[in-house]
Structure formats: C-alpha cells, structure tokens
Amino acid sequence: AFLLRQKRTCAARAEAMMFQAARGAQRLALASIPRGASPALLRQPPAARQTAAAASAAQQRCRSSVADSLPSEVDAVIIGGGSLGSSCAYHLQQRGLRTVLLEAHQLTAGTTWHTAGMLWRLRPSDSDVQLQAYTRDMCIKLEEETEVNSWTENGGLFIACNKERLDEYKRLSTMGNYFGVDSRMLSPAETKELYPILNVDDIYGAMYSPTDGTIDPAGVVNAYKRAAERLGSKFVEHCPVEGIETESYSVHGQPRRKVTGVRAKGQLIKTSVVVNCTGAWANAIADMVQIKVPLRAMKHAYIVTESIPGVHPGLPNMRDHDLSIYFKTQGDSLALGGYEQNPEFWPDVDPTFHFGLFDLDWDTFNQNLEGHIQRCPLIETLGIKSTVCGPEAFTPDHKPLVGPDVEVNGFVHCCGFNSMGMMLGGGVGR
C-alpha cells in the first residue's frame, strides 16, 4: 500500500519532480527561465530525458561559444565537462600545460548535475582517504579564490548494524587519527541524540566524522572553470569530439600508437594527450582509438521526501552499509538513496542524452526503500516530493579507471567512478 501511494504521488507531481531534480543544473545553466517560454516545455515527462530548464538553457546560452575558434595546438585535450574534467583541466593547467576542455553539451550535463554530492572522508583505502581529503581542501580553497560556494560541512554518520561492522568502523576511526581526520565512536543513544529521527533499536553503534560534508556539483564545476580559465585554460561547450587522430610508431620493433590530435567542429587540435572524462559515455570516446573501457552504464537513483519535522541542513549525511542505503538532507527533506542488488543497466548509451533522467522503476528501488523505512520508520508515512534516476558508470571491481592506456600512448583514462566521482574528483584531478 505504501509503494502504491508513492507511485500515485509521483505521477501527480511529474512537473515538480523534473524541476526540482534540475536545481543544480539550473544554477549552472541559467539565472532564470526566459520570459515567454512555452508552458509545455515545463511539462516534459522524465522519459523525454531533458528537463525544461536545461532545454531552455541550451537554446538561450552558451558560455563558451563554439563560434570562437578552437586552439590549433595544446598540450592536453580534456573531454567531458563534469567534476572530473573540470578538475583535470585546472590541475594540468596549474602544472604548466596548455589545456582545452571540450564538452559536447553543457558543463555538468552528463552525470555530475544530478549527483548527491556526499563526501565521506574515511574509507577502507588509504589512497581514497588522501584523495578525498584533497578534494575537500580544494573545495574550500576554490571558494576563497573564486568566491563560488561548493562545500557544506555537515558531517557524516556511519551506522553499524552488527559487531563486525562496528569493529570495521573502529579501525577506520583509528586510521583517521593517522591522517588527521577527526572522528568518534557513538553509542546507540548518542546516535539518536545526534540524529533524532533514526531508529537505533537494532544498531550496535555508529562512527561520526564531523568534517565530512556535501559538494554542490554546479558550484564546484563553476569554481574549477573560473580558476582554470584564470590560469589560461579554455572551456568549450556544445563542442562534441568528432575523432581522435593517432600515429603508428615502434618500440624495440613492437608496433605502438600515439595520440596526435583531436577533431571537433571540423577543426584539428594538435595534441599529444587526451584525457577521457566522459563517464558513462567513455566507450564512445575510446572507440575513436579502437580500445574498450571495462565499464557499464547503469541507472542510479534517489528520491526526495516531503518536509519532515526536525530535519534541517545541519544533520549529517547518513550511511548504513549493511542496509546499503544513505540519507542526505535537502532543506527540511531527506534524499534517500542506496545500491540495489539487481541494478538496471543502460545498454544503449545515447550520445544526445544530457541533463536527462529516466523513469524510476519502483520495483527496483523498493529494496532500498525497505531499508530506509527500517532505519527511519517515519518515512513510511511521508509522500515523495521528487525522484532522480540518472546514468552512472560502474566497473567490475568498483574502482575507477585512471591513468594512461597501455595500447595508445597519450590516451588517458579518467572514468568509471562508481558514484564516487564527486568525492574523488579533486584528488584524481591532481
């Protein structure tokens, strides 16, 4: 009955769902919807795969006009204008390379715009801890340098449903001491005091990391763009890559290939380095140099509840690994997400898909919803304000694909981040 009620609620609020899901994209794409826009544009269903605001923005603006001539030669071409691409452009330019970033549609239009944006500073991998610490530091640094806000330090809470999980979090907390990450272990009662709406009757405790937080996707990309352009980088939107040119050579008699240029808008940009930051679309770029990337595009979703008494932006992000769910505040509402055991693949990745969403499959998402209700029974009584179901790239070992390709010299992978691209973006870009 609860599930049917949510289906009816979402059907009745299709317009609000699409509008609210695109708030981050709107901040990046336009200041306001143009006057005189057709009301029909605001009633497009999710299946249309384009929000009204993004469609209007695509017609009304182009921050980096493709009418401007592309550079004839650079040291590195970054393909993809999301959090990873913008970070790579900034850091490479900072190191003294001449860079240009090419985005087929608009900045953030692929996966970045709809990300939940949570950053957890304590992870099982030492490398992840250091990469994410740098990402957080960069958000703070860029705010000071560019005056573009992107970081909210609301903390993070890991819930332990059994003794083994509690022991794991104790080890993470100890590791955090080494890396200078503040954390503390909480009893069930202390967890309830910190996050009053949680059900703690079935938990063993929790780990609280007060310097975790949330990254605004539009904000951080705008900040990287502004900082990179001040250093001399160029960001070009509405500029799909048409081809990547390579040249054959040999090493000790063995045939090899190397990148020599990128074609876009009928022009050739000479370069020896291409960085593929296109996420779920990475294989379309890799095909241009006849290689395959081991990632699959999947549909990844979260829903946003109606307002909840006691919920406010100061509550920490909450992760329950045993239930495979998370909570994140959005004003006085909660964004509810997680990872399904039977995820939906997106086998035919559409190159024209941008600022797009899929219709949410409630049968798939329901397994997450059961965990959400277990951790917060109040959720069962709430309506759903909006749903967000968009593309994300996943790899077989749940680790990102980063670094130079072994077959094509100068072709660099920076994709397959398994929903961790935002939190790893700063560190990996460096």
Keywords:
about 425 residues, alpha/beta, 9-stranded mixed beta sheet, 6-stranded mixed beta sheet, 12 helices, 22 strands, about 30% helix
Question: Would you write up a description of this structure?
Answer:
The chain has 430 residues and is an alpha/beta fold. Helix content is 31%, strand content 26%. It is built from 12 helices and 22 strands. The protein has helices at 2-12, 14-21, 23-29, 52-60, 83-94, 126-146, 163-179, 188-194, 217-231, 282-286, 362-375, 421-429; strands at residues 76-79, 99-102, 118-119, 151-152, 156-160, 184-186, 205-209, 213-215, 234-236, 241-251, 254-264, 267-270, 274-276, 296-305, 317-320, 325-330, 333-338, 344-345, 384-394, 401-404, 408-409, 411-415. The strands form 4 sheets. Strands 5, 6, 7, 14, 15, 16, 17, 18 and 19 form a 9-stranded mixed sheet that branches. A hairpin with a 2-residue loop joins strand 16 (325-330) and strand 17. Helix 5 (83-94) runs parallel beside helix 12 (421-429) and helix 6 (126-146) crosses helix 12. The longest helix has 21 residues, at 126-146. The radius of gyration is 22 Å and the shape is elongated. 49% of the residues are buried.
